[in-house]
Amino acid sequence: MSRTFNRCSVWMVDHPLLVTLFILLLSGIAMLGYTMPEQVRDWFTAEPVQPVRQQPDKPRKVREAPPDVDPISLTDGDTILVIDSDQFFTTDGVKALREIVEEIEALDYVQSVFWLDDIPNLNIFGLREPLIPNERASQKRMDAAKEKTIHHPLVGGQLLSVDGKTLLLMVKFDWLHVVDDEACTTGLKQVAEKVTAQYPELHFSFMTTGHVPIYLTAVRTHNANKVKYQVIGYGMILFMAIILFRGISAVIIVALAPMFGVFLTMGIIQFLDFQDNPFNDVVLPVLLSLVGLTDGVHLMVQIRRHRASGLSGRDAARRGIQEVGLACFLTSVTTAIGFGSLSLAHHDTVREFGYSCVIGVLLTFIAVITVIPLACRTWLGRSIHQGYGKGIIDQHLGRISVIIELVLKRSRLISSVGIGVTAVLILISLTLRPDERRANMLPEGSEAALALNHMDLAMGGLEHSSVRVTWNDQVASDSPEVLIAISQVDDLLLQESLIGHPISIRNILAALPGDGPPEERMSMMDLLPPPLKRAFYTPESHRAEVSFHVQDLGIAKYGPTFTRIEEGLKTIAVEHPQFQFELVGSAVWRWKNLYQIVVDLASSLGSAAIIILIVLAIAFRSLRLGLISIIPNMFPLAVTGAFLVFTGQALEIVSVCAFTVCLGIAVDDTIHFLTRFREEQLLVDSDEEAIRRAFTGVGTALIMTTVILVAGFSTVVFSDMRDQRIFAIMSGLTIASALFGDLVFLPALLAQYAKRSQVPAMEESEAVIDQPVEESLVRE
């Protein structure tokens, strides 16, 4: 394998024109992905076959057609204008509220505003009784209206907080007339503030929330931070690389490889329509940059060493790629296979991310072994050796080598400590539980995040979920059993402290005059206004819903609550065998699906570790080395996992993605050390001497990549978005821990368990055959 790879790599170095044409070909394919991916996909997509419509064997029972009525919705608002005040039920307050609604509805991009005045009547005579009285009403009548409004089933806890100090206006937009994003948020606030400015005695405060403001805030902040921290981070990486390399040309050449790898990947995955995957948008470029940078630094360190010794650019590139090219190949293969395990996940998002990682890692490897040797043969590579040996790490590596001497003297103790500490930290990390909050994707202190928190306190949460109740055709839609089943669901929800303000036809019927058994109350359903009745009850579909609020406390907090509700629904279903009960809603979806995403990522991470063990054992033809590699690979992940536990964090998508990225970096460093160790083991008689030479040979590159990457990630620690800070902290901690594991635990494990008898005879024969190629290296 080594000889075959060396021949192929040397051939590429010796034929720069063909390599250049190959690079241009890949670039052209990627450009097609950026410019016309749909047309290319159409070339390989067969025409869809029109399905043959079959006649049903038996005529189906036709249900009653739904009436042409739009049901009211307490959640159907693109933007929610949240107004805080204790002066709603005053003369000026009522006037200001109605003027605010009129001014907002007058905006050409606003389709409607739903608020207290739009609540249908609940009197049996159908008389118009507005909840908010005329502004000329006395204060006594205002106070009475406030009490009545708070206790209204459609208002209290829904559009008005139970303390009467928070009021919601549900705004829907005509998207054909929306000219900019700001109109959907600050534009509404400006209109409301302009109206209230005419009433100096009023104290109204305004915030906007809802899915549109949350989405806009998240996207706006994401795009701004993406550009900002990529510029700062890459700038820091460039600055640190210049200091460590002591030469700008070497830094430029090393940077070209991951840049080209990311360019190819992000263009080619568009042929598969994976570009809109949220992981591919943020995580994938970072992952590929890190993988490409680490391999590129290892290759550049070797090329610079040979250029400094007097070799030409061509010969230095040949020697460098012979020495570390195979290690780079193994790191790419193990990383690609490990991430390929994500394709076994249940969720499409995770599977697409897995496929994209495999494509990206392989393309980045191609970029490293083609771009760097080719660039080193150009005018740009003439001065890459300038500053070699004068860098901070080069000058002080001899002092750091005292570490390896201490490790070799205490190899048994240090290896035992490494195994024990890793095992303990893994056990601690296993206590992490999946979680997710909507506020995590928003900047802390932003209006959207503050509004989410305020809605939790004032209204029991912004999100709505529900229990969907359906029944078969054997149950009449006006059967009392329908109301009995809904009432039992309502009582079940009221037992849960985290469930806010359940509402159903039970609450609405209870607001009508009189009292009695379900048989009598159900007969009053026809007295309700159709828009109100159909909001929670659709008889022609044999369906009803019990809606409730959910706070943004995280799926981990709601997990036990939803579990108890589902168990309770099963009990109710036993009592009503002709009914079905289903817990639905966005929060419930996240509980089930995002939990599964995290579990998929975590299980794929474990699968990747196992696959990497197998690949390393096959590549080095030693199961013992494969087992040894487990500790330095898992130690940094275990350290970071324990850090999350001790700081009270949860296992979120961002943290598992950080684990995934950092596993690739940890494996890269381990493979480079092991590859150099096996090469040195064939050239010297002492295993300890082989470990020393491996430490000296790859130590510079390992320390250099760690310093550069940690410096780059450190800039993101100051981000105003929690997810980005968590990602940066975890990445920096994992990469730093990986360096410790590779320079301390790995040498100790090799000294203790990697015996010379494990060197296969075939490798020794290959070493003899390749001896002339490596002769100058041996002299060094």
Would you mind describing this structure in some detail?
The chain is built from 28 helices and nine strands. By secondary structure, the chain is of the alpha+beta class. Strands 5, 6, 7, 8 and 9 form a five-stranded antiparallel beta sheet that branches. The protein has a four-stranded antiparallel beta sheet with strand order 2-3-1-4, sandwiched between helices. β7 (537-538) and β8 form a beta hairpin. α7 (211-245) packs antiparallel against α8 (248-268), α10 (313-340) runs antiparallel to α11 and α23 (630-646) runs antiparallel to α26 (722-753). The longest helix has 35 residues, at 211-245. The chain is elongated and about 100 Å long. The two termini are 25 Å apart.
Number of strands: 9
Helix count equals 28
Strand content: 5-15%
Output the radius of gyration.
Answer: 33 Å
Roughly how many Å apart are the termini?
25 Å
Largest sheet: 5 strands, antiparallel
Please mark out the parts with pLDDT under 50 across 5 or more consecutive residues, or reply none. Answer: 58-63, 758-780
Mean pLDDT score:
81
Taken from the alpha-carbon principal axes, the silhouette is elongated
Derived structural class: alpha+beta
Portion of residues in helices? 55-70%
